[in-house]
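Tokens help. Our protein:
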Amino acid sequence: MKEKKIPLRKCVGCNEHFDKRTMIRIVKTKENDFSVDFTGKANGRGAYICKKIECFEAAQKKNAFSRAFGMKIPDEIYEQLKKEFTDEK
């Protein structure tokens, strides 16, 4: 019997591949609105980050989200993500 494929996505912080269901997705819509997508199904361009605080800090330091979306990311998104990481602990 054939095994079901597990969708992998690359973390913008550590550049490692993980199961996309275990990662946090950040979405940019056509109207340049940013949001955290917990369902993984929201319309728009997405970038993934794993749930490690070290990866978040590395991505913020090297402007990985700005490169992924091709524009500057508002500080509110970074604050919202930081809150998500601290709430899980």
User: Anything to note?
Assistant: The mean pLDDT is 88. The beta strands are 8-10, 17-19, 24-28, 34-37, 45-49. Residues 43 and 71 are 18 Å apart (CA to CA). Helices lie at 53-61, 64-69, 75-88.
